[in-house]
Amino acid sequence: MENDIVHIVQLVEELYSSRDANNVKLIQKQLQEIQKSDHALIVADNLLNQESLNCKFFGALTYSVNLNLNKFDNLDSLNNITRNLLQHLISLINDDKIINGGGMFIIKKIFSNLALAYMMNHSNWLNPLVTLLSTIMNNQVTYPNTIETLEDDDEILKWINAMPEKFTHLVMLFSQIIVEEMMKRELPNNNSVTMHQTTHDYLFPTTEKFLLLSCQKYHEEQFLSLWLQCSNSWIQYCSKAEFDTTIRYQLTSLISFMISLIASQEQEILSLAIESVTEAIEINHTFIKIEQRLQLDSIIFGNWGLQYINYISNNQDFESAEKFTRLIIAFLNVDMLKLAKLLITDENDFKFEFLLNLTGFQGLPLEEEVVSQDMIDFWNEFAYSFTTDLSVLKSSLKLNDDDDDDNDDNEENESKNDGLRKLDLKAQHLFERVILTYWNKIHVPKDIDSLESSFRDEFKIYRRDVGDLIDACYPIVKHPIFHQLVNNIISSIDNSNFADIEASLFLINSICADFSDNSVDDTILNGIVAIFDSKLLELVSLTHQSNDKFQYVVYTTIQFLSSIEWFYKLEQGTPYLSQILNFLFDSMINSSSYQVTSSKAISQICNECRLSLIEFLPNFEAVITEMINNVSVESLIRQRIINSYASIIQGVKNPITQGDSLFKLFDLLDKRSFEVINQLQTTIDPEQRDQMKDYLTSIINCISAIGKGMQLPEDVEDIYTNEELIIVKNYWTIDQLSIHSKILNIIQNFTMLEESMCDDLSIMEAVVDIFKSGLTEPIPGPFVFDQESIILFIEMKFDSLKTSNSYPLLYSLYGSLITTCHSTIQPENVVNLLNKIFVDKLEIIEQDPDIIQSSLSLFGSILQSKPSLIVNDVILFELILSFAIRHLNSQERFVLKSLELFWIKLINLRKGSRQDTVIVKRLFNETQLGNLLTFNSFKYMFETSRSNLEFFIEIIKIIIAKYPLMSSKWLNETFLKLNLERRNSGLKEIESWELFVKKLIMSRGTRGANGLIKEFWLQVNGLVEYIS
Amino acid sequence: MSVRNLCDERIQQERKNWRKDHPFGFYAKPVKAADGSLDLRTWVAGIPGKPQTLFENATFPITISFSEEYPAKPPKVKFPAGFYHPNVYPSGTICLSILNEDQDWRPAISLKQILLGIQELLDTPNPKSPAQEPAWRIFQKDKEAYKKKIIEQTKKYANPK
């Protein structure tokens, strides 16, 4: 054994000194085996008796491992271990090298082990603190206890006085570690309740008395720090114990002393006390009773609080300021309503003054101080007392009109009104000052670019939070603050104070974002007008070309122009449109930094007030040319601006002007794209080719954006008079400038000229969007093409496509065409085209679920609009039906969804003619269709996943609802056949299906069938419903 | 004194919790009605794309609608209509198990968890719960094309520099 110990000691030393990870792993493995062996505790005792701290610690650790392994389930072994641990503890605490030489971690480990032993043995070992005290005092193991209850002051004082200070530290530490261990480990419920009860009855009273009496003797920082740590752990533990059981703790004496430490003269102690009290409130504020609240209130808001703020302010002690603020917020958050009530009287004004001063704590937010950031939440919460919770506040102040229904006393009403007015006024005044404090704080620091990017990101969020705060306060402060901000902008323009302008505009943005053209009032409108009259845009424009110094004011101005979109709809806004658009165009063109935000604002303005912008069309032309020709412009921005331009063109009622503008635009797009397509054909470099293709994709997307922009925004009769309508229709029917051909030509260039673009999915998407944009238009227009052109395009593409990627898009286009043109489309044309794009391609289609799904959706569209387009052609129709039955075995959700719609539409046949109905009914009644559909629906439903069940249920329901007589036969045949198949495959047969069929028939395909089918599906698959 | 129901109480609580503790870069707040009062049942929120993903440097707007049955039932969370993502319906409604009362919704799920869940979903779509065809199809078939589309969409919601 001795040799073994020597070897183990070597291993332990090596474990803590080796830098070779593999070696460490190897040693760990060996030592872990020893720790779990039968003689582990002998090794542990030996190691604890070694001189080396590493060995002592490893010995203590070995005890932990064994206690955690729950090896000791009988009282004797637990008692032995406890005795051994206490014995080791005596040696350790009497060894100066341990206590003063960095060996406390070993003592802590022993304490932790004793705590574990207590948890396992709490029904016998009631008070481990008494054990420790008597063991220390007698310098020998005193276990088991001779007494368990130790609450007598004199007795405890006697012990405290008799022991050296360092041992009082140990007593507190032990108590702390016990409760921390109890919080870490969950015991089985019964054990947990008795453990909490024992702790409450024995350990807590001794600890409490020890803490309260020892602090009368010792006042040094080290002692008080340990005292606070111990108390905090107890507060946490008590909170948990109260949550887990019905036990209740009375912590007032401890907390009272803790609070009294805040007013300590020692900075370190008061700082610790502030943190501890904050933590106590945050953990469970119900422990803080009224006396402690008053005590805390008088400290925070009394002379001490003021002096402390002055002290930390003068010393620029940002850390202490943050801690103190956290305490104040935690304290006040407990009862905001009470604080709000204080505002009605003047005697508490000093408290609000104090909070305002704290909010304005000197220093750059986040970089230096975080007080103002913490206070944002506080003020937000406080503001709700005067907005969301106003009725509660009034009620508690008895200021509600309906508080005393029986009392009609005028004098009392008058007094209530006075009270309300006063409260409103004081709240308004207070929050105005809050906002002005934050107005100062949100100023962008001059040297922001030299600060770290993480600061910039956080500062942005800080400003946004301030924006939210003003949003929350605005119902309280209303117009006066808006006026102040507007006036500040106007006065700051004279001295070009960009920082002030930016801060004011930023807050105005937050206020304006919530208005609409219906809700905004004249005061606000006049304020906005005053800003535009103040030459703000002129001044900010001057900064465009400057360096990034002014970027914030430009951004915020653009944001401002975006946030007042309601302004442009009102007549007061119209006169300013020109300067606003010019400003935005300048911002967009002169600096790439502002392109995204400017283009968004332009897009918003154009969409909101297209009619007022017609006269600005010429202003757009230069910008549009730049957008199209400049390859480096972002696609998104190009599309946005062109869509905006198209929205304005749409607003032009004169089709000639409209046509002229469009012609120029398409001509530009046509020439430019043709040029690039040609270049592409001769370009080899892959990177260059990618760039060119991206640019071309953006150009074709622009055409699609024009198509969207040109869609009529309202009903035709709301836009045009009868006379105007005739002119518009004539113009676009004749199409003198051949705009339709121009667009078709562009499409052809994109989809037929260059091989690499012919099969490009993004280009095809844009082209399909272009065609679709005119399909729903009620009158002729630039994007309203004749159906032959679209059909021809689809046909040509199916002929030339080398891959099937675009099939779904083309099917979707054809489906949309049939939905809108079904009344004029010829059935033979449909059959012809379907033969080319479906029948001839069936082999390819069958390989790809997306194409299967999109072709089924196309048939669904036909059945929804005009079933006769396919129903009458026997060969084609039968092919489609067998296709739709075959794919019931699909596992793809979208395919099944399309199938569900297909079958529902076919069986319902809502748009079917009499002849269509006869054909379909005959197919179901006289052929195998009904049988096949029922059989396959059930067969694949039983095989499908739970999430796809709904699709099959709907198909089965419609069969039963529409063919009630036949479905009984189909169902019986289905189950007989299914069971035969299952028998042949060695599967368990479906049981009780006869009853299910009866119930199903009785449901007549109503909603009741859903549960029935689902239940049967679960039964057949041997599953249970997991949602109760 | 006004009587609040469970739904409003819970929303107020969520609001407080959110203000006290919300992840960096996110925002969430109730909208204001025309009269300036707060509509607690309808919120607007912003989800920042995770760094080092296709969604980074942008904040994606969502609306959150709480029904009377909240928290027994989940709120309805929507991106703008047409949002390009395999698990977002064409209407913008998000298909996420924790937002589905038949799946993983539990009344204890907080607003913060919902928004973090959506942030996670942005870059890790669930191909087993497709909600829109275009994005789902391309996500399955052509990752490069999907990537391009997402980058384009992210630009639309890019954070101001």
Structure write-up:
The complex is a heterodimer of chains A (1028) and B (161). Chain A has 54 helices and no strands. Chain A is globular and about 110 Å long. Among the domains of chain A are: 71 residues, no CATH class; 175 residues, no CATH class; 129 residues; 101 residues. In chain A, 74% of the residues lie in helices and 0% in strands. In chain A, helix 1 packs antiparallel against helix 2, helix 30 packs antiparallel against helix 31 and helix 52 runs antiparallel to helix 53. With 1028 residues, chain A is mostly helical. With 161 residues, chain B is an alpha+beta fold. Chain B has one domain: Ubiquitin Conjugating Enzyme (Roll), CATH 3.10.110. In chain B, 32% of the residues lie in helices and 17% in strands. Chain B has a four-stranded antiparallel β-sheet with strand order 1-2-3-4, with helices on one face. The radius of gyration of chain B is 16 Å and the shape is globular. The N and C termini of chain B lie far apart (47 Å). The mean pLDDT of chain B is 89.
| Chain pair sharing the greatest interface | A-B, 39 and 33 residues
General shape of chain B: globular
Strand content of chain B: 15-25%
Query: Which residues of chain A form runs of ≥5 with pLDDT under 50?
Result: none
Uncertain segments of chain B of ≥5 residues (pLDDT<50)? none
The number of E-state strands of chain B comes to: 4
Provide the structure class of chain B. alpha+beta
The description of the largest β-sheet of chain A is: none
Counting helices, strands and paired strands, the structural category of chain A is: mainly alpha
SSE ordering of chain B? HEEEEHHH
